């Protein structure tokens, strides 16, 4: 299947460069390019791309607000794309705000072309992606600044004991393979549990599962 992409960036040369890299792939097609967040929302709803590449700093509406409106539309829009945020700035606030707005990935613009291509494929497949150098400190900062809440209590009550156990391990940063090793079960079994956890909790990807685990107090910063 071809992955369709909309590029939102206020710099024309950046948009052209991203488009050239992505259109050179057999499985990716750029369907549109826009220069601000408001236009990104309008064109995303018209073109319905699989993935929106979203810059953070743009005129009219910034990429964080545009992401929030696309992923959690105020008017009940049924279409919600996957958003991969791209920025020049390695700033924790941007990453934190992008993820809480509903972005499924975060990548710095100085990444290699192959990294951009793989990022689009990873996000399109339903997995989350963070630039490695910001992941650990982001989650630690998130946990330290957000006191636990009970707003997830009802949803968490619907998990089985095993699913709850696996969610905690996801929150601690373990991969499916590592979880399988710790629990002495098959990795495919872990994948099945993870899929059910995401469905029951309405999660889009692994990063948001980690955020929920911290938010609900299942994992503490010291973990």
Automatic annotation (TrEMBL):
- Give residue ranges for domain Response regulatory: 4-124
GO BP annotation list: phosphorelay signal transduction system; regulation of DNA-templated transcription
* GO MF annotation, one: DNA binding
Keywords of the record, alphabetical order, are:
DNA-binding, Phosphoprotein, Transcription, Transcription regulation
Q: Which residues form the HTH luxR-type domain?
A: 152-217
Q: Which CDD domains match?
A: LuxR_C_like (cd06170), REC_NarL-like (cd17535)
Among SMART domains, the record links this protein to: HTH_LUXR (SM00421), REC (SM00448)
Among Pfam families, the record links this protein to:
GerE, Response_reg
Which InterPro entries does the record match to this protein? CheY-like_superfamily, NreC/VraR/RcsB-like_REC, Sig_transdc_resp-reg_receiver, Tscrpt_reg_LuxR_C, WalR-like
4-aspartylphosphate is found on: 55
Q: What name has this protein been given in UniProt?
A: DNA-binding response regulator
Record organism: Leifsonia poae
């Amino acid at each position: 299947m071809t992955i369709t992409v909309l590029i939102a960036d206020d710099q024309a040369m950046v948009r052209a460069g991203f488009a050239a890299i992505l259109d050179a792939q057999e499985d990716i097609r750029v369907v549109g390019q826009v220069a601000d967040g408001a236009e990104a929302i309008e064109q995303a709803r018209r073109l319905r791309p699989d993935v929106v590449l979203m810059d953070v700093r743009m005129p009219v509406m910034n990429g964080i607000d545009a992401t929030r409106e696309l992923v959690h539309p105020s008017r009940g829009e049924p279409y919600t794309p996957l958003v991969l945020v791209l920025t020049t700035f390695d700033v924790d606030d941007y990453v934190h705000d992008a993820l809480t707005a509903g972005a499924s990935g975060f990548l710095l613009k100085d990444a290699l072309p192959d990294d951009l291509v793989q990022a689009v494929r990873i996000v399109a497949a339903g997995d989350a992606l963070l630039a490695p150098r910001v992941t650990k400190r982001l989650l630690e900062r998130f946990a330290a600044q957000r006191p636990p809440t009970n707003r997830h209590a009802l949803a968490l009550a619907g998990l089985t004991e095993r699913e709850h156990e696996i969610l905690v391990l996801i929150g601690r940063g373990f991969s499916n393979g590592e979880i399988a090793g710790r629990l002495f079960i098959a990795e495919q079994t872990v994948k099945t549990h993870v899929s059910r956890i995401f469905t029951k909790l309405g999660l889009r990807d692994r990063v948001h599962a980690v955020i929920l685990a911290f938010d609900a107090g299942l994992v503490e910063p010291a973990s």
